[in-house]
Design brief:
There is one protein chain. By secondary structure, the protein is of the alpha/beta class. The protein has one domain: Decaprenyl diphosphate synthase-like (Undecaprenyl pyrophosphate synthetase). Helix content is 38%, strand content 15%. It has helices at 36-42, 47-67, 87-110, 126-139, 155-168, 178-182, 230-241; strands spanning 18-19, 28-32, 72-79, 114-118, 146-153, 195-198, 217-220, 244-245. The strands form two sheets. It has a six-stranded parallel β-sheet, with helices on both faces. The protein has a two-stranded antiparallel sheet with strand order 1-8. Helix 1 packs across helix 2 (47-67), helix 2 runs parallel beside helix 3 (87-110) and helix 3 packs parallel to helix 4. The longest helix is centred in the middle third of the chain and has 24 residues, at 87-110. The model is unreliable at 4-22 (pLDDT under 50).
Length: 253
């Protein structure tokens, strides 16, 4: 979807110190789906088979998180840097994404899920681009959990595109504040992620939601993405509720 053209109320923002306890779930959970290739290699399978199993895992993760009260789920499916992978793997990922969109959109619509693509679309195959557009149009009016699929997405690219649009729109530099800037991001329609989960054991951001993750809580797990199960997700959210979110302030200040 085009950044800078979102409608709807401004999402609430955290201020001061908040304790994530009780039954309160994070409104927005983002996931870096790492470990697909390693999952396949450990089983003597081609790397692309790991990506196929990883795509299948998204549905169960979405069901689990929505059942736990999460309103927005963002999955990092393909980065702007992933184009540098071997051509066979990139082509396979495109095929998997196309099949997933074609096969799962109807079911997601029936379950009242809103689907939103985050990232560029110009580099996608025409058929895939149409499938993504159709999925967004079909589910646009749904009121259940929102599924963001970050495909051909990069945090730096998103920020640069926002800056270019701000310049083209002639925004006065003196009027440019955080609220204005965020309206030009892909995620202008939703709150920033409360929790970012990365599977696969790596501990880096990987150019994901750089602006939006300024005060996100992070959870890293060695579990490979295709092996992520509802029980572990429930444990992650339980751990999140015990954290104290200070937003730069001091407890008791």
């Amino acid at each position: 979807m085009e950044p800078g053209k979102r409608t709807g109320p401004e999402p609430p923002r955290g201020r001061g110190i908040a304790r994530c306890r009780g039954d309160a779930a994070p409104r927005h959970v983002a996931l870096i789906m790492d470990g697909n290739g390693r999952w396949a290699i450990r089983r003597g399978l081609p790397r692309i088979e790991g990506h196929r199993r990883g795509a299948d895992r998204i549905r169960e993760v979405l069901e689990t998180l929505s059942g736990l009260g999460v309103e927005y789920v963002t999955v990092y499916a393909f980065s702007t840097e992933n184009w540098g992978r071997p051509k066979d793997e990139v082509d396979g990922l495109m095929d998997i994404f196309y099949s997933a969109v074609e096969e799962q959109t109807g079911d997601l619509h029936q379950r009242n899920v809103r689907v939103i693509h985050l990232g560029r679309t110009a580099n996608l195959r025409p058929g895939l681009r149409r499938a993504v557009e159709n999925a967004q149009q079909l589910t646009a009016g749904n009121t259940g959990v929102t599924l963001h699929v970050a495909f051909d997405y990069g945090g730096r690219d998103e920020i640069l595109r926002a800056v270019r649009r701000i310049i083209r729109d002639g925004v006065d530099p003196e009027d440019l504040d955080e609220a204005t800037f965020r309206r030009y991001l892909y995620t202008a329609h939703c709150p920033d992620p409360d929790l970012i989960i990365r599977t696969g054991g790596e501990q880096r951001i990987s150019n994901f939601l750089l602006w939006q993750s300024a005060y996100s809580e992070y959870y890293h797990t060695p579990t490979l993405w295709p092996d992520l199960r509802p029980a572990e997700l429930a444990q992650v959210l339980a751990a999140y509720r015990q954290r104290q979110r200070r937003y730069g302030a001091l407890a008791g200040a």
